[in-house]
Amino acid sequence: CVCVCVCVCVCVCVCRLFSIKTSFKNPCILIRIWKDCVTGLSREERAFQYVLTHATPGDPDSILDTFDVWCSKVEFISNIGPKKGKILDRLLMEHSPLTVLELGAHCGYSTVRIARSLPLGARLYSIEMDQRNAAIAEKVIRLAGFDDDTLRSDYNLERLDFVFMDHWKKCYLPDLQMLEGSGLLGKGSIILADNVLFPGAPKFLRYIRKSGLYEWKIHRAMLEYSKGIRDGMAELVYQGIK
Ligand SMILES: C[S@@+](CC[C@H](N)C(=O)[O-])C[C@H]1O[C@@H](n2cnc3c(N)ncnc32)[C@H](O)[C@@H]1O
Fold this sequence. Notes:
Layout: H1 2-17, H2 27-39, H3 43-54, H4 60-73, H5 81-95, E1 99-103, H6 109-117, E2 123-127, H7 131-143, H8 149-152, E3 160-165, H9 172-182, E4 185-193, H10 196-200, H11 202-211, E5 214-222, E6 230-238
Helix pairs in contact: 1-2, 3-4, 3-7, 4-6, 5-6
The structure holds S-adenosylmethionine.
GO molecular function, one term: catechol O-methyltransferase activity
InterPro entries: SAM-dependent_MTases_sf (IPR029063), SAM_O-MeTrfase (IPR002935)
Keywords: Catecholamine metabolism, Endoplasmic reticulum, Hearing, Methyltransferase, Neurotransmitter degradation, S-adenosyl-L-methionine, Signal, Transferase
C-alpha cells in the first residue's frame, strides 16, 4: 500500500512539474485507478457491493439511502443524489406520468427513484450505454423489487409523458431534437434535464430558449454529494408544434 501511495504521489508531482496535460494530474483519478486495480472492481461495482451488503432487498428507500451513504462518505459516483432527487420525486408525484424514458441509468439509482414514484401500471424505459453500468443497474433495479421486464418490454410506445435526461451533456440537444422528430412528445410532456449548469449544457439551454416549443424553468440545486458546486435541473413542458 505504501509503495503504491508513493508511486501515486511521484506520478502526480512529475505531472505537475512538467505541466503534463493528462487526467493523471488529478490525484483523485490516480487514487481511483489504484482502487480499481487493488479491488478488481470499478467504482460503480464497489458501490453496488456496499449496497448489496447493507441495504434491505425489496425496499427502494433503503437502497437509495445506502447509495447516498456510500457516495457522500466513501466514494463519489454521479447519482442524482438526495437533494436533486427530491425535485425529481416532486415532479413525478405532481404529473403521475404513465410512460417515462430515462437517458443514462448509470447504477440504477435514479431508475429506482423514478420507479418508486410512478403510479400503478406505468412504464419506465431506461437506457444506459455502458454495459458494465447497465449490468449493475439491472441488479439494483431487481434488488429494489421492481420487475426487470419493464425495461425489456417491447417498445410499443405512442407517447412519452416524462423524460429524465441524465446522460452525456453534449447528447442533450441532439436527443431532444430526436424525440421531437419521433412524435413521441405530446402537449404537456415533461422533460427534466440534470446538470444543465454544472458541467452545463449551454447549447441545449440556448435551443430551448429560442425554439418556442417549451415552457421551461431551472430548478437550482447543489451538485450531487457536494456542498459548494452550484448546479441546476431544467424542467421543460412541451407545448407541441405551433
Ligand atoms: C450522470 S450518469 C447517470 C446517473 C443516473 N441518472 C442517476 O442519477 O443514478 C450518466 C450515465 O449516462 C450514460 N450515458 C452517457 N451517454 C449516453 C447515451 N448517449 N446513451 C445512453 N447512456 C449514456 C453513461 O454511461 C453514464 O452511466
